[in-house]
Design a protein that fits this description.
The chain is an all-alpha fold. The protein has 14 helices and four strands. It has a domain of about 240 residues.
Length: about 375
């Protein structure tokens, strides 16, 4: 039994990979919480709430990058609309967080402040039961999953692929962004949701709450990585890779490629929704700008930067790009988009395999 379990584990990662994953988990669940909560603010080893929140936010982005890699790196489907699924997960959980404010808002009403300001008398239908955590958690999975399934079914059945698929996914997220900007949709218009107070009865802005959210996000990232590894190492993963390389030949072999693409497309969207739900309580706001086409394009840059078809590469890419973004938007905010464009161009020209590809080449040279 133990030998079978060990053999199965080694199919996904070698001893070094599991050791690195264990070290990452130890840092997430032990080192960071201790340094953030048990060390005084004056200590050089203290980790402030700012860095905990920033790391949690980047891990949410890393989950999205892994989800993107499953469909682009392994299946060859470039989506320019994954920011929509991320935002839908955020909005789904954001409704629960808004309901938890209760009468502590500016207008001291059971309705959110933006609804009172717009003279709403009751919650719209889509807010039904959102004061329950379990229902919000279900929406986080169901809303992006159902939308992705319906959209993907018609797109893949119509054999839309390549740049045409990328364009319609970008159009989809742009249309959704315009819809959510409207005040009459019941989602806060351009201001979105903010001023969250608590989650599961726990104040959301305390250091302890931030550490819990950080740890949960880290666990979700590890789970996403392991799920992705399980999928790509299975027979399903081999079919997806074959679809990426030669879809027509796979169809001639008797496989219905639409079913495979629809499955991985829906799974990817659900993972993005979960990432969005974890992102919102840590950042403290969700608004339609998260659906902007530029954000979805940036997701593709994370994957390209780290290395497509590697799973771990997109995590590195998300960390590198968003770490650089945090620095440059403070030092030279007006030049960040130029830096981002330069990073993408340099990666395309000189690092077609991304950071992981570069590390592989260096390892071969030193071997």
């Amino acid at each position: 039994m133990n030998n079978s379990f060990t053999a199965t584990a080694l199919r996904y990662y070698g001893p070094g990979g599991w050791l690195a994953l264990g070290a990452f988990a130890f840092a997430l669940f032990v080192i960071v919480p201790v340094l953030a909560l048990a060390t005084p603010d004056t200590s050089p080893f203290h980790i402030s709430a700012y860095w905990v929140t920033l790391a949690g936010k980047i891990m949410c982005y890393a989950m999205v990058a892994v989800a993107m890699d499953l469909i682009w790196g392994y299946t060859g489907i470039l989506s320019l609309g994954h920011g929509l699924f991320f935002a839908l997960g955020g909005y789904s959980f954001g409704m629960y967080l808004m309901r938890q404010i209760g009468r502590e808002g500016q207008y001291q009403s059971d309705l959110p402040d933006f609804m009172v300001f717009l003279d709403w008398k009751a919650f719209p239908w889509q807010w039904w039961n959102t004061d329950h955590f379990w229902w919000a958690a279900l929406l986080v999975v169901a809303v992006p999953g159902i939308l992705a399934f319906v959209f993907g079914y018609f797109a893949f059945r119509s054999r839309v692929k390549g740049v045409y698929f990328s364009i319609i996914t970008q159009a989809l997220t742009y249309a959704a962004m315009l819809l959510f900007f409207r005040n009459d949709t019941g989602f806060g218009g351009n201001n979105g949701f903010t001023d969250f107070k608590r989650i599961l009865g726990m104040p959301v802005t305390t250091d302890e709450a931030r550490i819990v959210l950080f740890a949960v996000t880290g666990a979700a990232l590890i789970g996403t990585l392991l799920l992705g590894r399980y999928l790509v190492c299975s027979k399903l993963g081999r079919v997806l890779t074959a679809i990426r390389d030669a879809e027509t030949r796979v169809a001639f072999c008797g496989y219905n490629t639409m079913h495979y693409k629809l499955f991985i497309w829906t799974v990817s969207a659900v993972l993005c929704g979960i990432a969005g739900a974890l992102y919102v309580p840590q950042v403290g706001i969700i608004n339609p700008s998260e659906m902007s086409p530029a954000n979805s394009i940036e997701i593709a840059i994370w994957v390209a930067m780290g290395g497509r078809g590697t799973l771990i590469g997109p995590i590195l890419g998300a960390g590198i790009v968003n770490g650089a973004k945090s620095i440059f938007t403070q030092i030279l905010p007006e030049y960040w988009l130029y830096v981002l464009g330069l990073l993408f161009i340099m990666t395309t020209l000189f690092l077609p395999g991304g950071v992981i590809g570069l590390l592989a080449k260096l390892r071969k040279k030193t071997a």
